[in-house]
Amino acid sequence: QLKCFHEIITIGYRVYHSYDLPWFRSLSWYFLLCVNYFFYGETVADYFGTFVQRREQLQFLIRYHRFISFALYLAGFCMFVLSLVKKHYRLQFYMFAWTHVTLLITVTQSHLVIQNLFEGMIWFLVPISSVICNDIAAYIFGFFFGRTPLIKLSPKKTWEGFIGGGFSTVLFGFVFSYFLAQHQYFVCPVEYNSETNRFVTECEPSELFQLKKYSVPLLLQAVLGWETVNMYPFQMHSIALSTFASLIGPFGGFFASGFKRAFKIKDFADTIPGHGGIMDRFDCQYLMATFVHVYITSFIRGPNPSKVLKQLLVLQPEQQLNVYRTLKSHLVEKGILRPSLRG
């Protein structure tokens, strides 16, 4: 994240000739610090709640985390306004906008990568591997069979490579998911154990990672000779992830290509010899991470009782009693609990 931010910000300073405003580079890094403090503070509050409750000094930081984050950002905003120079107004606002867009691209999406990791390693490994597989397969199919140009932004991309890479990626994701789904280490959500003071990846696998019997479509029964097949339900989700990696994921690369052409540069940087900068390798990965996070929150993740319980434990005793009475009354109305009898 830091390297990608540095590469994009450096391009902005070079393109807009901001060398005569060296202090503004420090202000850009200050905004990066503020945004990281906000996002990762949210993560600490969610996943380290039990640990935080045991330390009074951290309780203050967590309770007022968003206010502190906003105050830090306002301090940077005021510093920017106070530092405006008459002859450089346009340049300074260019770089102010450039910094915020860079933060949106790098920090926000890299934070989603961390969120995906906490859902289980499989939600990180399958998507990132699918993007890599698609990149390699598209190159191989394009090299041997490519004839029809795909998009003007990338003249070397062909329809043959795009289609061949897509089918290869879906097949790879389906098979790779089968092997990962067999191990708790990859499928269990990462949780913090306050007693051992370490992360644990042990659990009873959810229904997504338990073998189920599926009927094979009639058209495939004649070819495969199978009427049923045992699969993990996650493998069906892997098809959606792989399809996105092969159909929409490459547009992250096209976007990066258009960006570089707009500023007449070949690579974002020269960090990796022969491959360019770190951002050149992560252009599709950031888009993929965002999709995975949206996919999990939309179709996979349900209400989390443990997080609700952590929030209830922070409340005052009177507030906890009010919640208890409200919940009890609700359960009685639904017939789940019997009304208490009083003499």
Blueprint (SSEs and pairs):
Layout: H1 2-15, H2 22-47, H3 49-53, H4 56-63, H5 65-82, H6 89-118, H7 122-145, E1 149-151, E2 154-158, H8 159-180, H9 184-187, E3 191-193, E4 198-200, E5 212-215, H10 218-224, E6 228-231, H11 233-247, H12 250-262, H13 278-300, H14 305-314, H15 317-333
Antiparallel strand pairs: 1-2, 3-4, 5-6
Helix pairs in contact: 1-6, 2-5, 2-6, 6-13, 7-8, 7-11, 7-13, 8-11, 12-13
In short:
InterPro entries: PC_trans, PC_Trfase_euk. This protein is mostly helical. The chain contains 15 helices and 6 strands.
Characterization of the model:
With 343 residues, the chain is mainly α. It folds into 3 domains: 1-111; 120-265, no CATH class; 307-342, no CATH class. The protein is 69% helix and 6% strand. The strands form 3 sheets. It has a two-stranded antiparallel sheet. Strands 3-4 form a two-stranded antiparallel sheet. Helix 2 runs antiparallel to helix 5 (65-82) and helix 6 crosses helix 13 (278-300). It is flat and about 75 Å long. The model has no long low-confidence stretch (mean pLDDT 87).
Q: How many E strands? A: 6
Number of domains: 3
Radius of gyration: 25 Å
Fraction in beta strands:
5-15%
Shape assignment: flat
Structural class, judged by helices and strands? mainly alpha
Query: Helix and strand succession?
Result: HHHHHHHEEHHEEEHEHHHHH
Spatial separation of the terminal alpha carbons: 65 Å
Major sheet summary line: 2 strands, antiparallel
Average of the residue pLDDT scores: 87
- Low-pLDDT residue intervals, each spanning 5 or more residues: none
H/I helix tally: 15
In spatial order, strands of the major sheet run: 1-2
Q: What is the helical fraction, as a range of percent?
A: 55-70%
Pfam families: CTP_transf_1
Organism: Phasianus colchicus
Protein name: Phosphatidate cytidylyltransferase
Membrane topology: Multi-pass membrane protein
